[in-house]
Design brief:
409 residues; alpha/beta; Peroxisomal Thiolase, Chain A, domain 1; 11-stranded mixed beta sheet; 3-stranded mixed beta sheet; 16 strands; 20% strand
Amino acid sequence: MSLRRVVITGVGVASPIGNSLAAVSLALREGRHGIATQPSWNAHGNLATRLAAPVRDLDFSTYPRRKTRTMGRVALLSVHASDQAVADAGLTPEQLASGDVGLAYGSTHGSSSELEEFCRTLFRNESLQGLPSTSYLKFMSHTCAANLALYYGITGRIMTTCSACVSSSQAIGYGYEAVKYGFQEAMICGGAEELHFTHAGVFDILYATSSTYNDHPELSPRPFDARRDGLVIGEGAGTVVLETYDRAAARGAHVYAEVIGYGTNCDGRHMTNPSAEGMAGAIRLCLKDAGTSIDAIDYVNAHGTATELGDIAESAASFQVLGDKVPFSSTKGYTGHTLGACGSLEAAFCLAMMRDGFIAANRNLDEVDPRCAPLNYVRGGPREARPRTIMTNNFAFGGMNTSLLLRAV
């Protein structure tokens, strides 16, 4: 079997720092963030954090009701991002429904707000009466993938990734493999997450959220910084269209980059305590798949959640494999941790940097934690550069690790 080159021809985003690639690129260059205090969270007892990064300025009312009646906010965010990507790639309705195009899409949860409403109604009334028939379709774990497939009439393969913080990076990886090995001509790939207080609560119980800066949202999160105090939850969606290089060239499509490597593995050790060895293993698998050396990498987009264990382990893994020369930064300082959406959003941010000629800085990195490895942290503002080969890494509970390598064409 001859392996096929896989390229990205469409990109779409919904994020706390903008709802188009141009908007997020400008925000990253200008150092603008989307972190805000959430006064409504005062109603939830013992929730320490009040910080989150919501998506703003989106109107979902323009979508036809017959297509959105089974969608909660998380699926609607995925539609916004995917509509952009599909239009950007120039895919027609006929192509989408041909069977040649598949979809890989994920999230950590379905719609948590819809699940909350379902449970509140059920337990308050102690009855199923009054519960909408569409409720489950909105909060089921694969709601984004299922709704997108129906929305576009996709008849190719559907892969649903519900794997916490690597949901959308795994989706891109699986889509890349599906095209590379000839199972599909093109794949729509990505992930989404909606903002909900329970998402913050999950990490709050683990003492992993930022609370010191509740009254100063501009000062958090702080990946790799000595004064970081935890992550900030965000929401959003990111979608990319992957297809064979030959198909893209034949139809004259614009190519953002080529996906040249993907690595994924599991630590096999602990549910929440990350392993530097496992992370390093995924990075090595990615380099092996790409058939390239570390010298070719111009920038690493880190997972960088601003948690103590995560930052230290990730920096150690990166130093172990990549050394201390490659520019290194986390964009979660701008968007917070968008959970199932972070991998695809951060891939889109990398494409923006590649296209527009800069490398985003680590926001709020004033003093590197001495327990973090001595990497080439980008600080003080964006670097003017022309990164041609970019690695983006993500890691999740359960010891799941991913690494993607993108190269300008």
